[in-house]
Amino acid sequence: MLITEINGFIGLHFAELAIAKGMKVRGLQNFSDKAKKAQKLGVEVIVGSVTNPATAQMACQVVDVVTHTAELAKEGGSIDHFQEVNIRSTLNIAKAAKNAGVKTFVHLSRGCSAYRNS
What we know:
By secondary structure, the protein is of the alpha/beta class.
């Protein structure tokens, strides 16, 4: 089973590719109304956020591959929110994956490379 965040295009695309290859997919989505597109594809959706350690741990149970694509890649806003989404959520899902014995962890982010501290 693969788990991916389905908040954005990349996570949803991962889900589509995995399903096309015959994999079961579990996805995380912050908002239940946005989960419907993924559910129509056959994704098991957990409504919650990777910024919550308990949600991340629950999502990683009985999973072989985690793709972590959640990010905040805009300039402006609070640095704390940027760090919460781009750093702490990555640590949450990585620790959850390790604790659950996940075999493969893939992290894709443009946020750190796109953010420039002035």
